Amino acid sequence: MIFEKLGICKEVYLIRTFLYGISPWKNDVKLFIKDLKFAKVKVRVYHPKAPSAGQRRGVLYLHGGVGQIGSMYERVCRFIARGSDSVVVCVGYRLAPEHPYPTQFWDCLTATVHFMTTAQDYGVDPTRIIICGDSSGGTLAAAVCQTLVSRTDLPKPRAQIMLYPFLQAVDFNLPSYQQNGSVPLLLRKRTLTLGMQYLNKDLSLIKDVLEGSHVPEDLKLKFSKWLSPDNIPMEFKIRGYKPSASASYSEELHALAKPVFETTFSPLLAEDAIVRQLPETFILTCEYDVVRDDGLLYKKRLEDNGVPVTWYHAEDGFHGVLFLIDYGYISFPCGMRAMDNVVNYIKGL
């Protein structure tokens, strides 16, 4: 951030340079790994080397990084492929700011459709494809699954997996934002800063958006049935929660922030007619995470619409903990437990 303020380089470029400089393992004795393109979208395919009696499951992994960073997921993808004996496809969608939002969503949708129509070429059963994403990748996974509801020409996804997903940009004063606003790795203000950078919006908007001045009264009323803190179990409020005062509405701010109400950015705002057609779902939430309540609210919406949900809550988890799996002494046990639950869920599909 200091480098960016001094005009030396943008923060996101420095982060990319650092992360791209950390080479992942070169070989994996249990996997074939190949870089390909699915309809011009870069992907990396992880295929188990062991022979299979039949077609395998396929897992499309849509990585997080707020649409701007994307090199931290090698170990996660290998872990899933090895542990679940599935073919994993990590989508290397184009990144912002070079490729503005919603390029990332369209790349993910394009790669997903391509995989669904060519799955058998990779030894995958097209009726057993799972769409998975973490953080903002969970946003993309949810948005892709919602879009596929209307695609009668394609097989329905077998399941969707969302790992501590960001799902709405309407209310930044939910209990989890109040309780965990200063908890690394994702701070309350930082969440919106990254989101505004992703949308290429003026960062001076952040303070008023955090207060909710971008939401008109009619939308507050409409969204309240889905986003009300009353929908969050009391056990998640005991660490502290104070209902926030209603902020004064700014029509100008609403116009500038309008993309945050799109379901490609805030999938939690999708209509019930869409939600009730979604596939069964696995949701991971972490106690010490500002977006914890996004996952809890989506869990309730899915269940209210008859969609089966498997939920795992990491009571000692935090946002980004999965990045560190398989890093030896710097791995967190809560991250390994969470990933074991993800793998076991996939194996049961």
Largest sheet: 8 strands, mixed
Mean pLDDT: 92
The low-confidence runs, each spanning 5 or more residues with pLDDT under 50, are none
SS-derived structural category: alpha/beta
Outline = globular
Helical content (DSSP H or I, runs of 4+):
25-40%
- Gyration radius, rounded: 20 Å
GO cellular component, one term: membrane
Domain Alpha/beta hydrolase fold-3: 59-201, 260-321
Family: Belongs to the 'GDXG' lipolytic enzyme family.
Pfam families: Abhydrolase_3
Helix and strand layout, with pairings?
Layout lengths: L1 H4 L5 H10 L10 E8 L2 E8 L7 E7 L11 H11 L2 E6 L10 H16 L5 E11 L1 H13 L10 E5 L11 H6 L7 H11 L7 H6 L5 H11 L23 H6 L15 H4 L5 E8 L3 H13 L4 E10 L14 H15 L2
Parallel strand pairs: 3-4, 3-5, 5-6, 6-7, 7-8
Antiparallel strand pairs: 1-2, 2-4
Helix pairs in contact: 3-13, 4-5
Please supply descriptive tags for the structure shown above.
single chain, 349 residues, alpha/beta, 8-stranded mixed beta sheet, 13 helices, AB_hydrolase_3, GDXG_lipolytic_enzyme, AB_hydrolase_fold, Alpha/beta hydrolase fold-3 domain-containing protein, carboxylic ester hydrolase activity
